[in-house]
């Protein structure tokens, strides 16, 4: 956050400092909880009867409320296929939502309540950059495996044994966005990112990548995600005459900003590059139903995304399952728009990986099955490729080793259990789905994109 700018907005610097103190207090509380005894059953005992639970811990209300339904859809889709195959160790999978409100302080009591009321919890998914720093240590204290969608830098160099990340850090996302800008020969870049923790993690890496690429930042706007209008920020961006805007502002904020830029710019959209989180049916529906319209928007909007293996064997079942969740999950205007959403894609794969690891370990206890996630994701000598839970379970029962290749492809993890996969440039189609253009962007690290890992 740019404090010099925020100071001009009537004392928001003090508010930011107070919030930092609050987050620090929450982290201190979390640290004190790590040594607390864990109640029997909260880590996934093998004696469960009937069912086991997977919790989607994410924002379902607040500025980032669009994220939660993506993850909830992944859970319902994966659980439907797992249960149809007989369940995990003959136990049916149930899905539960835990609303963090996108706030680290609100997330802690929500997660504590989750543990108090959910005895058969075996896996957590979701946990975004908004709240991951405060809740991941709690998951670890309870020995609960988690697949999180956080890009925060603190997870780049600290090993949490029960934490897995199927998407690269936000810094790599930022590098991929700049790679798209390079392809279009853009030189003057405006930045527009929300003031939420999940969006602000992109800013510094984007600035560094822009400088390395020989481009210039001509405007850098921090967006109050609780605001309903962004006339000041939109005017600053238009007057800076950028070649392109790099942005992340989910939900109504992103819609309002782009609509106001469009109107102030003579009813012309400035080319915009979004993060992978902006491949979202709520955002698409909001923008295209306003003054910009469908054709103007899709002609000028790109988003980086991890490669979705739409031609692979895992995709047809995934496609079917996601569309079948219509009516079960609230807040999704188009389930077809989730088919390439990275949260839905990779958490669907993560649930399959965890479920197969439980079968392989003959246990739903996190400490017993977590090591098998890596074996199944990366493959071991003599492993056969599988693309669904049912196929993997069949081969495990036959005594075979398996290598899961999902909708997101094959996952290779670093020492901090983060998977770095290839990126692509996605553009929306008129129906709200996306298509990759221009071939792969390569494997983007924290500093550059390369053709190979």
How would you explain this protein's 3D organization?
It contains 16 helices and 15 strands. It is α/β, with parallel strands linked by helices and 453 residues long. The chain folds into three domains: 3-33; 51-169 and 344-404, 3-Layer(aba) Sandwich (Rossmann fold), CATH 3.40.50.2300; 170-307 and 420-450, Rossmann fold, CATH 3.40.50.2300. The strands form three sheets. It has an eight-stranded mixed beta sheet with strand order 7-6-8-9-10-13-14-15, sandwiched between helices. A five-stranded parallel beta sheet has the order 2-1-3-4-5, with helices on both faces. Strands 11-12 form a two-stranded parallel sheet. Strand 3, helix 5 and strand 4 (146-149) form a beta-alpha-beta unit. The longest helix has 22 residues, at 12-33. The radius of gyration is 21 Å and the shape is globular. The model is unreliable at 1-47 (pLDDT under 50).
What is the number of beta strands? 15
- Helix/sheet category: alpha/beta
Name the CATH class of the largest domain.
Answer: Alpha Beta
CATH fold assignment of the largest domain: Rossmann fold
CATH homolog superfamily of the largest domain: Response regulator
Name the CATH architecture of the largest domain. Answer: 3-Layer(aba) Sandwich
Major beta-sheet overview: 8 strands, mixed
- In what order do the strands lie side by side in the largest sheet? 7-6-8-9-10-13-14-15
Number of domains: 3
Query: If helices are DSSP runs of H or I spanning 4 or more residues, what is the number of helices?
Result: 16
Beta-strand content? 15-25%
Mean pLDDT, to the nearest integer, reads: 90
| Principal-axes shape call | globular
Question: Unreliable segments (pLDDT under 50, ≥5 consecutive)?
Answer: 1-47
Distance between the termini: 32 Å
Rg, Cα atoms, Å: 21 Å
Q: Share of helix among residues?
A: 40-55%
């Amino acid at each position: 956050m740019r404090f010099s700018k925020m100071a001009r907005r009537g004392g928001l610097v003090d508010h930011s400092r107070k919030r930092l103190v609050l987050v620090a207090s929450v982290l201190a509380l979390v640290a004190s909880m790590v040594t607390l005894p864990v109640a029997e059953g909260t880590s996934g005992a093998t004696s469960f009867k009937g069912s086991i639970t997977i919790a989607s811990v994410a924002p379902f209300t607040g500025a980032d409320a669009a994220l939660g339904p993506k993850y909830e859809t992944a859970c319902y889709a994966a659980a439907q296929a797992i249960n149809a195959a007989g369940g995990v160790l003959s136990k049916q999978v149930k899905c539960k939502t835990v609303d963090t409100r996108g706030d680290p302080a609100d997330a802690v009591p929500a997660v504590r309540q989750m543990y108090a009321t959910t005895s058969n919890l075996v896996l957590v998914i979701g946990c975004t950059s908004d709240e991951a720093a405060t809740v991941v240590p709690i998951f670890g204290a309870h020995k609960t495996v988690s697949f999180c969608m956080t890009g925060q830098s603190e997870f780049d160099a600290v090993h949490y044994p029960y934490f897995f990340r199927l998407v690269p850090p936000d810094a790599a996302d930022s590098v991929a966005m700049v790679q798209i800008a390079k392809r279009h020969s853009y030189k003057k870049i405006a930045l527009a990112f929300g003031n939420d923790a999940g969006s602000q993690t992109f800013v510094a890496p984007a600035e560094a990548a822009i400088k390395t690429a020989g481009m210039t930042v001509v405007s850098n706007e921090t967006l109050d995600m609780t605001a309903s209008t962004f006339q000041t920020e939109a005017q600053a961006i238009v007057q800076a005459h950028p070649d392109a805007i790099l942005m992340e502002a989910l939900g109504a904020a992103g819609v309002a900003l782009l609509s106001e830029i469009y109107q102030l710019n003579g009813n012309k959209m400035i080319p915009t590059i979004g993060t992978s989180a902006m491949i979202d049916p709520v955002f698409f529906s909001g923008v295209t139903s306003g003054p910009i319209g469908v054709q103007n928007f899709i002609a000028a909007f790109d988003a980086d995304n991890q490669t979705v293996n739409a031609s692979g064997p895992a995709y047809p079942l995934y496609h079917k399952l996601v569309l079948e969740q219509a009516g079960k999950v609230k807040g999704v205007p188009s389930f077809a728009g989730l088919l390439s959403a990275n949260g839905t894609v990779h958490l669907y794969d993560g649930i399959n990986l965890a479920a197969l690891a439980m079968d392989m370990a003959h246990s739903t206890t996190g400490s017993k099955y977590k090591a098998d996630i890596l074996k199944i994701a990366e493959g071991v000598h003599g492993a056969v490729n599988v693309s669904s839970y049912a196929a993997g379970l069949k081969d495990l029962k036959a005594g075979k080793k398996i290598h899961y290749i999902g909708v997101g492809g094959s996952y290779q993890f670093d020492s901090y259990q983060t998977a770095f996969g290839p990126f692509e440039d996605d553009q929306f189609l008129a129906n709200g789905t996306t298509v990759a253009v221009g071939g792969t962007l390569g494997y983007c690290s924290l500093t550059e994109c390369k053709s190979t890992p």
